Prior knowledge:
The structure holds 2 protein chains of 2 kinds. By secondary structure, chain A is mainly α. Chain A is 80% helix and 0% strand. In chain A, helix 1 runs antiparallel to helix 8 (186-197) and helix 7 packs antiparallel against helix 9 (201-227). Chain B is an alpha/beta fold. In chain B, strand 9 (223-228) and strand 10 (231-236) form a beta hairpin. Chains A and B meet through helix 6 and helix 7 of A and helix 2, strand 6 and helix 3 of B.
Amino acid sequence: MVVVSEVFKSLFEGFGVSLEIFALTLLFAIPLGLVISFGSMSKFKPLKYFVKFIVWIIRGTPLMLQLIIIFYGPGLLATWAANSGSANPAILWMSSWQVMDRFLAVIVSFVINYACYFSEIFRGGIEGIPKGQYEAGQVLGMTKTQTFFKVVLMQVVKRIIPPMSNEIITLVKDTSLARVISVYELIWAGQTFIKSSGILWPLLATGIFYLAFNGILTIVFGKIEKKLDYYKN
Amino acid sequence: MSILEVKDLKKSFGKTEVLKGVSFELNEGEVLSIIGSSGSGKTTILRCINQLETADSGYISVDGVVFFDGNQHKENAAEKRKRQLLVGLVFQEFHLFPQYNVLDNVTLAAKLLAKERADYKENKKEIFADIESKAKEILAKVGLSEKLGNYPCELSGGQKQRVSIARALMLEPKILFFDEPTSALDPELTGEILKVIKSLAEDKVTMVIVTHEMSFAKAVSSKVIFMDNGVIEEAGTPEEVFDNPKSERTKAFISKFDD
């Protein structure tokens, strides 16, 4: 007979890893998303289309598949390179590639995936700011940087909070995909009890964790929206 | 010496020739009104002078500083910005910064500009206090002393436009341009804006006003230009243009506003 406290101890451990994936993804995907959004708005056409192409690939394929490719891809390429017998230095170097650390692979694929989604939200937010705001900044002698940071950015933030909260809530649940490449997280923690003790309820109980955490996020985002309610764009 | 010189200004958008060679001058302290029907190129003149559009050819100088010379095409952002401070523009649609209150809207640019002063770090407090007291003075002048802490969304159209005038005045431009300052307002609110502009004219602020308010233009201007289809159809004193127009087109346009 398993003790309930034991189950929850495992679940909390798994949830800790899920939170780590969540936090690290946000931390890196937001700035990377901003960079990608600038790329997708670039006046330099080749860059713009290259970025749009990448965003299309990432948004057009399942995150689960991306996880698998990022994790297994380097190892597969190394095997291929070693077997090719080529003396080309690039291929020789490739043959020295190792399989990536599982957790690192999760973070890399999550960051790339979410940065692409965020970049589209940022682009929408930035492009939605009326041209007049930039023009007002210019005729008041502000530099482009000043206009962006002092005038435009706050308005963008206000606009993107609702779509961002949507994405971020999805991210909480997407952390469960890490299970696919055998990274121990909340779902796995719940699942182990099926094999070890023949009980299903711990797996079902993981839902409480996602639900509670997303409840907190919903409240936090609601508060932020309310805080920015003092003005209208 | 004229403070504003515009010579043979030409500008096309795609295949549409909006300005077909426009020339005029303005002396310090004068008020110029530009009238004409929509699409005649009035706003484009202001946008070219205020560096929001680049003309195709021609010449623009403000206070002796060359703003545009058909031959010069390299753009130096720092110099462009320096020139920008010589002129001020009040937009038809105000374009206030929604996230800042009235006082911050007026002081923002001046505060950012102050960062470039050599004594900014030591005297930041005094500099900001000066900027704020100056902004309050200007806001008092346009009748908004009571609204310093309000946000643009809490103001009427007329109040918003007065904030935007104060915001432009704050940087003490050599010439203040108005792009149809009352066109986005309800008719009953235009009066308060015209009153502000009139008082600026009395203070000898050099202004260029694109407007559809004919009686106002007649009362406040020292010079009037009637634009038609990308060219200056007629120019002169308000009496000349409004009371004794020479061109048939001017006559036809003016008569539409007689009631």
